[in-house]
Write a structure and sequence with these properties.
13% of the residues are buried. The chain has helices spanning 10-42, 44-55, 57-84, 91-116. By secondary structure, it is mainly α. Helix 1 (10-42) packs antiparallel against helix 2, helix 1 (10-42) packs across helix 3 (57-84) and helix 3 (57-84) runs antiparallel to helix 4. The radius of gyration is 18 Å and the shape is elongated. Helix content is 85%, strand content 0%. The termini are far apart. It has a single domain (12-116), classed as 3 helical TM bundles of succinate and fumarate reductases (Up-down Bundle), CATH 1.20.1300.
Length: 117
């Protein structure tokens, strides 16, 4: 429990989530995508092994989580770049941008996962 003195805010939760998705992408997503690329270049047998993994529910879950994290990290990174220009720093704009990132993440992830299916 955080206690009665601090109420988590969208901006702080999204900042923490941005860091967490970055770690996930580094530890899980990048090796997974590297395996995919190497398997594609290594021929049908290697690609069949990757496909078998990706077709299993654990593999699909890791791929879906990677896509979700990648979309969130990308869109939230763009929001941070906008902030670096000195724009959208007011509280209302920060929350509006946060909701845009969250909805955009779900939509973009759905599109990418739909294409990959």
């Amino acid at each position: 429990m955080i206690g009665p003195y601090y109420k988590p805010q969208m901006t702080s939760l999204m900042s923490i989530s941005h860091r967490a998705t970055g770690v996930f992408l580094s530890v899980v997503g990048a090796p997974l995508m590297l395996w995919w690329i190497i398997a594609t270049a290594s021929g049908p047998a290697a690609f069949a092994r990757f496909e078998a993994f990706a077709g299993h529910w654990i593999g699909w879950l890791l791929l879906a989580a990677t896509v979700l994290c990648l979309c969130y990290h990308l869109l939230n990174g763009i929001r941070h770049l906008v902030w670096d220009t000195g724009r959208a720093l007011e509280l209302r704009s920060a929350y509006t941008g946060g909701w845009i990132v969250l909805v955009g993440t779900l939509l973009l992830s759905a599109v990418v996962l739909g294409v990959l299916s």
